[in-house]
Amino acid sequence: MTAPAQPLQLEGSSLWRDALQRLRDNRMARLGGMTTVLLTLACFLGPMILERTLGYDYEKQNLAYGAHPPSVAHWFGTDFFGRDLLTRVLCGGQISLVVGLLAASVAASVGTVYGAISGYVGGRLDGLMMRVVDVIYALPYMFLVIVLVTIFGKSLVLLFVALGLVGWLMTARIVRGQMLTLKEREFVLSARSLGVSAPAILFRHLIPNTLGPIIVYFTLTVPSMILQEAFLSFLGLGVQAPRPSLGGLINDGAQHMAVFWWELVFPGGVMAVLLFSLNFLGDGVRDALDPSLRGR
Amino acid sequence: MARFILRRLLGLLPTLLVIIVISFFVIRLAPGSPFMTERGVPPEVLADLKAKYGFDQPLPTQLLRYLGNLAHGDLGLSTKYPQRTVNEIIADGFPATLLLGTAALLWALLLGVGAGIVGAVRQNTAWDYGFMAAAMVGISLPTFVLGPLLILLFALTLYVLPPAGWGSLRHVVLPALTLGTVYAAYLARLTRGSMLEVVRADFVRTARAKGLSEPAIVLHHMLRAGLLPVVTFLGPAIANLLVGSVVVEKIFATPGIGPYFVDAAFNRDYFLVMGIVVLDSVFLLIMNLLVDVAYGLLDPRIRFE
Fold this sequence. Notes:
Largest interface: A-B, 42 and 49 residues
Oligomer: heterodimer
CATH class of the domain at 101-290 in chain A: Mainly Alpha
Largest sheet of chain B: none
Strand content of chain B: under 5%
Helix content of chain A: over 70%
CATH architecture of the domain at 101-290 in chain A: Orthogonal Bundle
Number of helices of chain A: 11
Distance between the termini of chain B: 9 Å
CATH topology of the domain at 100-256 in chain B: MetI-like fold
Mean pLDDT of chain A: 78
CATH architecture of the domain at 100-256 in chain B: Orthogonal Bundle
Mean pLDDT of chain B: 83
Order of helices and strands of chain B: HHHHHHHHHHH
Helix content of chain B: over 70%
Low-confidence stretches of chain A: none
CATH class of the domain at 100-256 in chain B: Mainly Alpha
Number of helices of chain B: 11
CATH topology of the domain at 101-290 in chain A: MetI-like fold
Number of strands of chain B: 0
Shape of chain A: flat
Strand content of chain A: under 5%
Largest sheet of chain A: none
Structural class of chain A: mainly alpha
């Protein structure tokens, strides 16, 4: 007796589902992802909770309670002006995350559109557009950012723009390279013969096909943008007091570290953990979407 | 090869010119003036000052004059330090920056390439995982966190190294470690990755079949192929050391040119800012050229056109 044959259940697996599975299997990436989520939650909810329950906020000074080491009431201690350091670190982390995400998004969108147009149109326009990228790439760009920020005033908006505008070059190059091969493929030819307009081909057919490398590069851009914002804030060019930023807090801490070690160790530690987890997550995303690069 | 280098050097000039022109206009068209003080300057004095530095001329004339002076190696006068030329300021500070950068680079190469080789040759062992995890920590520790932490540990707790200052080799250790560690981390990952690509290559098996010793195989055959991406990374990285040293020199009170840059931009010290931008660009361009030359030396298949 044979049992009636079960219809074979075969489930197709898409590139994205494969990638997600690989990402889930990567222990370090999972750890990085979880830490990132926890830190993000802490940075966005923490200050609110601390304010509701204990009445701490990032700028209210309490000079009688200045520079106290970590205690039950103030887990990270207080700074020179008696402000709760935990609140300030979390607020700083909030700014870092927002700056990192926004600047990386600006960079990714500008770079994608620029690279896609350059690669798709090709010819003389392509040559010209890529020459522009080469020249900007050769500029000593951190110096230019410093010049821009000192000259045009220190606003948060300008910081996004300055960071985002110099971060798009790599994305543009990557996307252009992809375009050059993609645009010769049959599906583009068939779309064109059906009368699809050039912008529609670009945005509906070509760019979605380059999403993999774009996402990979985006996830690795976020930590580098956060790092650069902190770099500028450390030099006193980024976020301005009394608003805290991780770079600014580390700068304050470095000046008093001989006496008030907690002012350096906690902001520095949070910054390092944030970058660490984002980098591991980014590495994992790259390995997941492009397994041939694994371990690079 | 000499012709190749010469032609490439000439090819750098237009790029450098574009960089100089863009930087010049960005800096000059920005609001603010180098002669702003709280009290204000009497108009006659201001006119005199402007005439002294040539700021009374139209911008294009000033640009041409700047380029003309630059061709003679004259970087102009500092407005913030009226007694000194930009050449003098750079000549004063650059040796310290150069020493710091060189020490940092040596540290990065030794640690980074070494760890990368071990990681690749002993792939998927505890050594490999350990070094690569350490590299990730290195990449995630910004200089401005690492530097103060090193001071806190080695200078203020263990008392083995000076916390800041300059003068003896002992003063170079901490800033060089701070500046070089990030690069060591990147180098370790790059070296490991590219060495892994050749670990199972045919020429390595041939070398092994010939009976070469393991160190000879690794150092002579694999490393040479594995160094290409490392060299690519090194060119821009060396130029970037200059930017990194802005922060490191501030932390360790090193008398280099780094801290001048931010101050110069704040003070609208036009010629000093331009001087440092030019210095950095020349550095970057030359390093990229050296990378191309090194390619040919490392990989004979790459020919100089």
